Amino acid sequence: MSTLLNRLQELVAGSTVPYLSFNRDIVDKVGRTTGLLVATYVVTTASRTLPIYHFIRAYSAFFGPLSKYPGPFLAKLFDWGDGYYDSPAGTRYLKLMELHKKYGHIVRIAQNKLSISDKDMIQQILVTDDLPKGHNYEAYQIDGHPTMFDTTDKTFHKSRRRIVSPAFSLRYIGTMEPLMRTATANLDGVITKSINEANAEGREYAKVDLWMMLQHFAMDIIGLAAFGTEFNMVTTGHHPLTTIISNRLKFTSFIGLHPKISRWIPKSQDPYLVNFMKDVIQRRIDSGEKRQDILDYLIGTLNTKSEDDRLKIDDIINEVVLFLIAGSETTSNTMGFLFMEMLNNPHVYEKLRNEIDAIEMEEGQTMLQNNQVKALPYLNAVIEEALRLHPANPGGALRRTVNDITLVGKHHIPKNTTVIAMSMATQTHPDYWEEADRFMPERWLDPAEAKENAMAWFPFSAGSRNCIGKAFSLQEMRICVSNLVKRFEFLPIESSMEDAKDRRQFITLGIAKNTFKVRAVLRT
Ligand code: HEM
């Protein structure tokens, strides 16, 4: 085999073909790439030696039901994982954007995979047909134990979601406002301290890493709400649990893109984390203390009468770890992008500040409360627009067909196809949005326009697998953003604004350098 490959490389690289040697470098690269592709093809199919397999594969590539969908030529032949498009790491969603620009609303990105940016098709995939999640999500499971997020089994999901949902109801989230205000007050304290220190040194403003501070803030909130623990990330910058989970996250984002490799990698929950959580849960049970938080609700399910409504301690641990992964960077990065957009669009910043400054404070009241900000039209519009242009999961949600389906009555998709509801491409598509790439919160102020584009905006996904933490994160963002806008003036730092243009998605959309510094001045 290697002789054959060497011969092939030699041939293409030109050493035995004089007329090809005029641009050795390019030819050499082509040779290596071809060799690699042939090798990959041969290795991945070596185990499938039956000739019929190759016949079916070739048939499916060029004549099968997916052959009519456009896409890169090689995508017809290979059933590669999404990792193929992720070079450099974190840019898969940008590659898919380019492919949608080139090929349209439906793109065949692998032999058995379509990426879709048509809002009506997405409505059908996520809501009407409510297709199950793709098998790649199983790569995230720890020791084969599924959570609400990574299960692909509809029955398991329905049951787990039913048990956990009350902890995310609007009423229950309302009772968690004090936790969110505590974390916001800590954030305010740290920024104020930086400004006071800068003033004492004769500087008008402090340079603060708003991005990192918001990430720490969101971790603190999940710490308080789901782990029953003060992570103190905002004040100290580290906690062993968040370090363990952040490291897991990096690993997770890799295996999510390479699900075929993942099945060979053993995954288990970190023993420190398990013991820590068991200890927190046991202490809560022993003390009989009642708290208004997610953990308390989950602990309450340990002893419910019906087995169907019961969680085990390990289930609780796996679910709360998931909340930290799914609920912290998603929320903090959305707020980071929101502030970045306001610094790029000072008129938006001013309009929001005016709306917030108009709220009357009670005597002695120092912080804005949820009931004062939850229905502010412009604040909500700014958040919705930030979620449109910077969805936490820009590369989209993967679903799979379990039967043949026909999308919007026209497009036949066979059983066992993976379909991606590609959020970034849909949420910035000129078919649906005027001046699609501009940050224009005003577009959300007209209810008719907002309604028309309902399914072209799905940053929290939709259907039965939509984000359970949507209301939680919206409440957190409204409280945090309104209070920061009221208390501080943030001003851009040019180099930081420039660096922040380099975006990457590792699970969640972020900035490549994971930092975004601004100048901060006290307003009140
Ligand atoms: C701006 C903030 C957030 C955004 C944009 C967001 C976005 C999403 C999206 C797009 C999904 C579907 C993912 C998929 O199908 O692959 C999802 C699911 C999920 N999110 Fe969020 N999320 C946010 C905040 C939160 C928070 C605060 C929590 C918890 C505290 C949370 C917990 C979850 C869970 C548990 C799921 C899985 C739900 C299921 O499959 O039933 N999220 N989120």
TrEMBL record:
Signal peptide: none
Cofactor(s) the protein needs: heme
One Pfam family here: p450
Alphabetized GO MF terms: heme binding; iron ion binding; monooxygenase activity; oxidoreductase activity, acting on paired donors, with incorporation or reduction of molecular oxygen
Keywords: Heme, Iron, Metal-binding, Monooxygenase, Oxidoreductase
PROSITE patterns with a match to the protein in the record: CYTOCHROME_P450
Binding-site list for heme: C467
Homology family: Belongs to the cytochrome P450 family.
Protein name: Cytochrome P450
Organism: Umbelopsis vinacea
